[in-house]
Write a structure and sequence with these properties.
This protein is an alpha/beta fold and 387 residues long. Among the domains are: 79 residues, SRP54, nucleotide-binding domain (Four Helix Bundle (Hemerythrin (Met), subunit A)); 146 residues, 3-Layer(aba) Sandwich (Rossmann fold). The chain has an 8-stranded mixed sheet, sandwiched between helices. The chain is flat.
Length: 387
């Protein structure tokens, strides 16, 4: 009996708790509906419809419903056929950071005070560190000193630096960056020479891609028969630019490869032959003699040899000047291609090459992409160092 009473008491207690819980929940819900939102938010009234279409009754027939206007879809075919925007030529100023930083520190020091002998000493140090060379630096600064003494140049930092800038630009007077082409009687031949590791093969590949993009038909001559990777590298570039390529067996006579390439280009009426050669030390007499033979073969008809381009690594500085002298004596270099100009503070070597040897700078490499091989602009180059 006692157990039954306990069970009934427990059941009664549970019923009371459940009823109280339901009443409390209903009260809290009612309070939430009556209280405004918290945390500062405002409940906006329902937004009126902005559509000008009259309201359609729910029982209206389906054909009475107003259809949504058709969306205007762009002419995709026209967009796809539109020519791609031209690739912008990289600005030298943006690529000569190291050279600008080197020279810029000295220029700012001179701008902050008057012109005296210490100004010329700082300019001399800056130009030598930039690998302009002793001879070119001495000639330019001696001339500036004399004009300051005579009063031709005002004794102010602005006047001195403006005169220096004009003198550096004058070093390149008469130069044209354009690569010369033949008269049209046969394929034009451009021969590339230089020591190992300066970037000859890559330069040829980039130039082939550029020439092909401009509508010229190109044949590559893999004249570096001593390095198997050079021929494979040229084949890759030939595929990218849809150019033809002539290769020889490993260790074959490079002159015969270039001869075959010219004959191949003439038979197919190609515009241009870009001839690679094996890298060689400028101090090796027998290798330089072989290069003379290559040049003689390259200029035989039907080809027209118009450029012998020496490829130099800008990071070598004055050592590049020594190379240029030796190659010029051996094969009559007509112009210089300066690679890796963006990665060095020794860009002043271009002034030494032009001033001491009289060789024009035709192309400069300022990056890894195809468009980073650009024609050399003397005024832009000097301006990039000063601005």
């Amino acid at each position: 009996m006692l157990a039954l009473i306990i069970v009934l008491a427990v059941l009664a207690f549970l019923v009371l708790v459940s009823v109280g819980f339901l009443i409390g929940t209903s009260s809290r819900r009612a309070l939430r509906r009556e209280q405004p939102p918290e945390r500062g938010f405002t409940v906006a009234p329902p937004r009126p419809s902005t559509s000008s279409t009259a309201t359609i009754p729910d029982d209206a027939p389906r054909d009475a419903l107003v259809e949504a206007p058709e969306l205007e879809i762009p002419d995709l075919e026209r967009l796809l056929e539109a020519p791609a925007p031209p690739v912008e030529r990289p600005a030298l100023r943006d690529r000569l950071g190291r050279a600008r930083a080197l020279l810029g520190g000295y220029l700012e020091g001179i701008r902050g005070r008057g012109v005296d002998e210490s100004s010329f000493e700082e300019l001399e140090e800056a130009l030598l560190l930039a690998d302009v060379g002793v001879a070119t630096t001495t000639r330019i600064l001696d001339d500036l000193r004399e004009r300051v003494r005579s009063g031709t140049i005002d004794r102010t930092p602005a006047a001195l630096l403006a005169a220096l800038r004009a003198d550096l630009e004058a070093v390149f007077d008469g130069d044209g960056p354009e690569l010369r082409r033949g008269t049209g009687g046969g394929p034009t031949v451009w021969l590339f020479v230089g020591v190992n590791g300066v970037g000859k093969t890559t330069t040829i590949g980039k130039l082939a891609a550029r020439e092909a993009a401009e509508g010229h038909s190109v044949v590559l001559a893999a004249g570096d028969t001593f390095r198997a990777a050079a021929g494979e590298q040229l084949e890759t570039w030939a595929e990218r630019s849809s150019a033809g390529i002539i290769r020889g067996a490993e260790g074959a006579d490079p002159s015969s490869v270039i001869f075959d390439a010219v004959q191949h280009a003439a038979a197919r009426k190609a515009d241009l032959v870009l001839a690679d050669t094996a890298g060689r030390l400028h101090t090796k007499v027998n290798l330089m003699e072989e290069l003379r033979k290559v040049r003689r073969i390259a200029e035989r008809p039907p080809g027209e040899l118009t450029e012998v381009l020496l490829v130099l690594d800008a990071t070598t500085g004055q050592n590049g000047l020594v190379q240029a002298k030796q190659f010029t004596e051996a094969v009559e270099v007509t112009g210089v291609v300066l690679t890796k100009l963006d990665g060095t503070a020794k860009g002043g070597v271009v002034l030494a090459i032009r001033s001491d040897l009289g060789l024009p700078i035709k192309l400069v490499g300022v990056g890894e992409a195809v468009e980073d091989l650009v024609e050399f602009d003397p005024k832009e180059f000097v301006a990039a160092l000063f601005e």
